TrEMBL record:
Keyword Repeat among record annotations: yes
Protein name: Nucleotidyltransferase family protein
Domain CBS: 182-241, 249-308
InterPro entries associated with the record: CBS_dom (IPR000644), CBS_dom_sf (IPR046342), CBS_domain-containing (IPR051462), cNMP-bd_dom (IPR000595), cNMP-bd_dom_sf (IPR018490), DUF294_put_nucleoTrafse_sb-bd (IPR018821), GlnD_Uridyltrans_N (IPR005105), RmlC-like_jellyroll (IPR014710)
Start and end residues of each Cyclic nucleotide-binding domain: 28-132
Keywords on record: CBS domain, Repeat
Organism the protein comes from: Desulfofustis limnaeus
Amino acid sequence: MTMKTSKKVNEYRADPEVAVAYFRRTVPFDQLDEELLRRLARHCKLDFYPKGTRILVMGESEVNYLYLIQRGAVSKFIVDPQGTVSLKDVRGEGQFFGALGIIQRSRANVDVEAVEDTFCLLLPKEQFLWLLENQPQFAAYYLKDISDQLVNTAYSELRQHKLKRRTSEDLLLFSNTVGDIVGRAAVSVDQDLTIQSAAALMAQQRIGSLLVHVPARPEEIVGIITDRDLRSKVVAAGLDYQQPVSRIMSSPVQKVLSQTLCFDVLLAMLSRGIHHLAVEQGGRIVGVVTSNDIMSLQGNSPYYLFKEIVNQDRISGLYPLAQKIPDVIRSLLKEGGKASHITRMIAIINDHILTRLLTLLEAELGSPPVPYCWLLLGSEGRREQTFKTDQDNALLYADPRDQRQHTEAVRYFTELADKAADHLANCGYPPCPGEIMARNPRWRQPYSVWQGYFASWVCEPNPQELLNATIFFDFKPGFGEVKLAEELRDYLVEKTRRQDIFLLHLARQALTARAPLSFFRNFIVEKDGEYKNRLDIKHKGIASYADFARIFSLKHGIKETNTLARFKVLADEGYLDRQLAKAAEASYELMMQLRLLHQLEQLEQGILPDNHIDPADLTDLERRMLKESFRVLERLQAILETNYPAS
């Protein structure tokens, strides 16, 4: 596919009322006063980027605007010297990109590409920098976000850095001071020492920087030199190695107090565009901290885990890597990540595990006799997994051309599915209790058989079969020949959109799970048993939202499988009131967030995660919001009843 490059920004202003309306509903602009919002709106432009447009190119593009995504989505990624692409982030409506480049006064630090047709509101960098300087809360929001991004000039160093697994408490950026992580005493040299001698000392000590003091007074630090200075100021410039270090040192030395939180140190580095800070304690410098030291605290970063998975050459080596996923998600969740971002991240990591596993299995078993696609089902297909993830999968392969190829396909895919199931179990993905897995021969079939399955479910719906069949309607390709899955999706969409009887069965089944609110709007909880006084937030809430979105998507021929994406498309295409869709998205997000937090707490207590929350454990605000979410669900279920009334 030919990559489209970004065109020049259109030279027309955004409608100020449109811009102000966007600001009012978007964090952190919604905290600014109306007059300031209107002033900002007068400076904004609007631009459109078709799907596939490369908006920013790492190291090349000037970043003159803060890009505020009004509609659509972009992916942010980096490409290493070997050409390997690492997905760094995906951002959608209400989010932004370009902040780090503006703050660092640098060119784009990542590649940014539109993954959907995307409209962006463009805020000039001058206005953005003014806000950072004059609106402290506004500045804190953006600086916290970019603190999670790797400093552009540290990318190459971090690619070579082997991160050690941390067993201490997560969120070290917020719980550790910089004094806690200074590993060794600072090394200082006389300012008259030659550059060559200083370089030799750095090599001998295996350090990346030296402090510089005045002659005979080591306590009086006047500068710092780094390995970067040696490369850029000496080697690249052809400077005489016998010159004193005072010629290339940076002065004065920028310092930070030892009791400063690592998070604040990282913010200082980002905002000042530096990578070394002297650490001061009791009036004297006790060490030097680098951006690499700070980023190493994010040992549970998805970036590192991705690299480890991709570079793994043994299937058994994937086992411990998969066990790191809860640690990664724990950090993201505790840092305030939205549920939709967390579940997307879980899905991406799981996809990496699966892709590497099946790639290594193919190398072991040889090439498959016919093309195939490993299908992800249920929450995996919707990309809505949480800490509790079973194996829900199936295997679709091309119809064999003769009996011999059929026999080979059965043998090959039986062995592939059996081994994959065992390896996935060893990675921490337990088998599906209902045997909805590729190792079950029923769910390991050629394309024509899968067509028959869907035709049977849609045209002659059996209530018992529907309990399992709904899981399959959310399938997505996980590995292999994606075209097979896409063709099967097209077949399903065409088959279901005019089958009102089938959709009626789905709707009546979905309506058996009512919103758990009493006549007096109190929560209806379990009366006894293991989960007494608890509420099954998955089956009483989350699943019902997913059911509604699935039914109406099938009704209107929408191919999306993710629940939030389905609500958005339903609203965009006029099939669902936009305000109700927005309320549904927010309510679904809240329930997923509560579920994730509940499961995180259980994991930290050594308890197997479940979906049963105790309303008494929620704050008053959370209880009110959850009740409102169930009221929104009642509105959706009323629409279902209107469209599919009981006979």
